[in-house]
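for ur thesis appendix - Helix-turn-helix domain-containing protein. copy paste whatever u need, i formatted it the way the template wanted (i think)
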Amino acid sequence: MYDPRQRPLALRLLREGFSLTEISRQTGISRQTLYNWKKDPDKAAARVVPSCPRCHERALDRPAYSYLLGLYLGDGHIANAPKAGIYRMEITCADSWPGLSEEAAQALAVVMPGQKIGRRASIGCTNIGAYSKHWPCIFPQHGPGMKHTRKIALAEWQREIVDEFTEKFVRGLIHSDGCRAMNRIKHVRNGETVWYEYPRYFFTNASDDIRTLYTDALDRLGIAWKQNSARNISVARREAVARLDAFVGPKY
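the 3d part is after this line
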């Protein structure tokens, strides 16, 4: 795999009439690839080359990444592909919410442009994914075993993105491991049973570290929360729910 930063140089040298051997020497791109580009320069120039924002200094769409990071920490995983050195990133989305599947696919396409987004069906859900050798570069939380069995911490560059686009991060976490539900409370007044309903947000994750990332993000946004159970975080105050409704809302 050649360095994508060499592609514009190779195309310019082709236009200027340099030999394939000389261009290959200068850029490290194979003669066969250069020959294919020479046959169809317009197609070669238009093609999007997959590259890594960590390895190749490609610009990273920070809002989309913050959202995708939330999805990954909740319902995502990175696995080794059959071909050595290649990984498949997948986000598991329940079929009950097709809109979330589309958002996951779009986020993957924006964060890693040029890769084909695939869908792998399972019982009651669809795994939205793409292949790349660079997924561990931009998701350093990847590692052996389940996330709740190992330390999960953000790299400094990830923390900067999450701090800047905290709402996107929270939205991704809730879209993966959270929900918006109606809470019902029964009161008896003057012998009559009265039911009250109000919306609440829940976030459930087995990892202490991921729950802390979630509650830290809520604190930065000024959203009140409480520990509902060992693995569950609840947001129930009216103003806090309204704040989440403004950028999260029910799953769809």
